[in-house]
């Protein structure tokens, strides 16, 4: 399971002209699910994301996590994160989860995030989404768990 996280001033996701999720200061999480992933990996990744210290403290050092700054978390499914790009000029998706498995783990991840954190918004799994964000920094990290 992979997550590309971006520290944002604000972010939103729109599907068919309807805003499905929006946050102010916080983290945009682009979530990719692989066929070897399970709920245990989802739990580990969520714990890492919520605890990851990417917000500045009073001294300007990245020492605070999203919960400490009372920030939002916007979770958007993105299967292209798990693409194999090592060879050729076209991505391969053989390591990606099936749509059913990906949706089940995405939904589970969102449920757990909503239980652990008060400000969680989402996109819509499998939809053509338009994501808007103002990256703060820019600060972007790729997080993975095994």
UniProtKB/TrEMBL annotation:
CDD domains, A to Z: Dtyr_deacylase (cd00563)
PANTHER family according to UniProt: D-AMINOACYL-TRNA DEACYLASE 1, D-TYROSYL-TRNA TYR DEACYLASE
Motif interval(s): Gly-cisPro motif, important for rejection of L-amino acids: 137-138
Enzyme Commission (EC) number: 3.1.1.96, 3.1.1.-
Domain remark in the UniProt entry: A Gly-cisPro motif from one monomer fits into the active site of the other monomer to allow specific chiral rejection of L-amino acids.
HAMAP family: Deacylase_Dtd (MF_00518)
Protein name: D-aminoacyl-tRNA deacylase
TM ranges: none
Assembly information from the UniProt record: Homodimer.
NCBIfam families xref list: D-aminoacyl-tRNA deacylase
Locations listed in the record: Cytoplasm
Keyword Cytoplasm attributed: yes
Gene that encodes the chain: dtd
